[in-house]
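Troubleshooting: if your tokenizer reports a length mismatch, compare your output against this known-good record of 508 residues.
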Amino acid sequence: MQTENLTEYILVEYRWIIVLTCLLPMSFAWKLWSTFRNYVVFKLNSAPKMHDRKVQDVQRQVKSWLNGDHSTRLCTARPTWQTMSFRHSLYKKTFTKIHVNLVDVLEVDTKNMTVRCEPLVTMGQLSRTLKPLGLALAVVPELDQLTVGGMVMGTGIETSSHIYGLFQHICLQYELVLADGSVVTCSKDNNPDLFYAVPWSYGTLGFLTSVVIKVVPAKKYVRLEYHSYTKLSELATRFSQESLKKGPHQFVEALVYSKDTGVVMLGDMVDKIGKDGKFNPIGKWYSRWFFTQVQDYLKRYQKGVRETAVEYIPLRDYYHRHTRSLFWELQDIISFGNNPIFRFLFGWLMPPEVSLLKLTQPDAVAKLYERAHVIQDMLVPIDRLEKAIGEFHKEFQVYPIWLCPFKLFNEPGLLKVRSGDWQMYVDIGVYGVPKAKGFETIPSTRRIEKFVTANQGFQMLYADTYTTRDEFRQMFDHTLYDKVRDRLPYCKEAFPEIYGKVNRSVRK
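Known-good structure output:
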């Protein structure tokens, strides 16, 4: 018992030592291996040949369950510590696990401007594959370790989403293995009900086995403008105006550093570095964490420097600008991670794999995260932005806050807009330790959830969900989803509802 207490004490109080000596080298070795392996497989064009065999293996496992007594439900065998969520899924302890080894880019079609890939392909893997071809995803969720399947079954967003929508809106076709062991493909024109029901369904309709995704021509750099504000109303107005422009910048983002201060960033792809700004290769191992660089422009503005700052950033560096610091989460795990000496000596090892952080997370750290840490993305109509920031400040007081606009199209599915062909929303990302007086995890989060629902908003499913089942169904329109589940053979026997996989009681 004393040994267990000592081990837990070390893991809690000196976690940075474990991260530095074990997790960073292990993460780096894994990245090297997976990059090499994926490059070879793609170059040899062996992935398409292997894909059918891997799908058949998923079918075989599902049919084996089907021939049994159906006393358990189905889920992937991917360990919960390998997912990007900071929580572990308790339901996996009792479900029948289906092994899904679908990790490859299958085909890049330069004629039709699409890429076909398997669900465990990561954003970093895709951007590395597409870069030499002069291509990029129309929407690139920025953390390297996010997977295609996670972006489809959960959601994905990026600073181009005010033009293209969410990650689901650039997906053209899904292939799934259903609960009866059959393989189906669906698109807007072929089996549209299933196609529109898949996004946000969290693996409760079938096992995703491949996705066809839209790509766009890419240029070498992003010309990025930094516009600082010391009044929230002015920041919210500029952010909304830029998001809703008829001819908008290709990338729109904002970081809010306090209730009244923040920086709006506007970017466009270019092929050459202009004379109106400086070159900033933020992807170098020794580079400062991006959010701290952005804050420098705010500090300059507060000191009276008013001219618009402009930088030229390599495209792939821009896409993954928050990866090295996991937005700003790593400052609470490796407090000296942005120190210049550390960056120069060990920056090439960063960031540690989230999966390894979770694997070595003792119960004491998990309880600490539950009691004094917030990781939430709430999606609200952009005209509610200023009001929403006020509510988040009152309940959480966590800064920086990430703002990313996105166009929500009026399509069938779990997300509904009020009227028109589309509506502009904003993702409000809150990640960190709350400093609001009276913060309590459950009551504070519950109040934010009620605010979001009352304002026709949505909560990302990876985050802690404290809503009741009825409240969850009020937030998300289950009309089409229920219809599809009723129609698909054995679906209700094989999979729980979405709420059964995301509510706080099934996560640890």
